[in-house]
Amino acid sequence: MTKEEKLIQELENISPQQLLADLSKGKRASAQDMKVISDVMTSQGLPSPVMNVLIHYVLLQTDMKLSKAYLETIASHWSRANLQTAKEAMVFAKRQQQTKFKTVKKPAKYRQYANKARVVPDWINDNHTKPKINDEQDAQVNVQKEKDELLAFINQYTDKKKNNYSQG
């Protein structure tokens, strides 16, 4: 028997709780994980072998995290597909994964459009360039005003001190 056949046989014969324990190196599954699995199984009507494949698939896809929302989404999809055995579920999951990768490779059409020259109205360029120049000029003017005001304040203060020293 191949590894896949052995896995299918194991998934057909163990409970979801035992599967989670096996996948977590013998540690018991948390009560929360078991509640999520139980809820999904009953609400979607999935048989235990299909649920085992689903658990295994979700854990592999999510870096060993059992996400309730993701689990429910896939479970409802698999329920509509009327999967009954672990083998059917594995074949279905593989097919879905292959179509997922095919759709990811499709952006070639986008690249065609990305290379085309884009027509941009003049008013867009005007609005984006002019305020930057004006903002920079305004900032320079404001900095210069602040410097002048600070210098005038310092001069005023030093002039008062000079007058106080010369009078006293």
Secondary-structure element order, as H and E? Answer: HHHHHHHH
Mean pLDDT rating: 81
For this structure, the quaternary state is single chain
What structural category do the secondary elements indicate? mainly alpha
Number of domains: 2
By DSSP, the count of extended strands is: 0
Helix content: over 70%
Largest sheet: none
| Beginning-to-end CA distance, first to last residue | 109 Å
Count of DSSP H/I helices = 8
- Coarse morphology: elongated
Which stretches of 5+ consecutive residues score pLDDT under 50?
Answer: none
Rg over CA atoms, rounded to whole Å, is: 35 Å
Strand content: under 5%
Protein name: DnaD domain protein
InterPro entries: DnaB/C_C
Family: Belongs to the DnaB/DnaD family.
Pfam families: DnaB_2
Write up this protein.
It contains eight helices and no strands. The relative contact order is 0.07. It has two domains: 3-111, no CATH class; 119-167. It is 79% helix and 0% strand. The protein has helices at 3-13, 16-23, 31-44, 48-61, 68-80, 86-104, 108-115, 122-167. The protein is mainly alpha-helical and 168 residues long. The model has no long low-confidence stretch (mean pLDDT 81). The longest helix has 46 residues, at 122-167.
Give a summary of the structure in a few sentences:
It is built from eight helices and no strands. The protein is mainly α.
Furnish the topology, listing elements before pairings.
Layout: H1 3-13, H2 16-23, H3 31-44, H4 48-61, H5 68-80, H6 86-104, H7 108-115, H8 122-167
Helix pairs in contact: 1-4, 2-4, 3-5, 4-5, 4-6
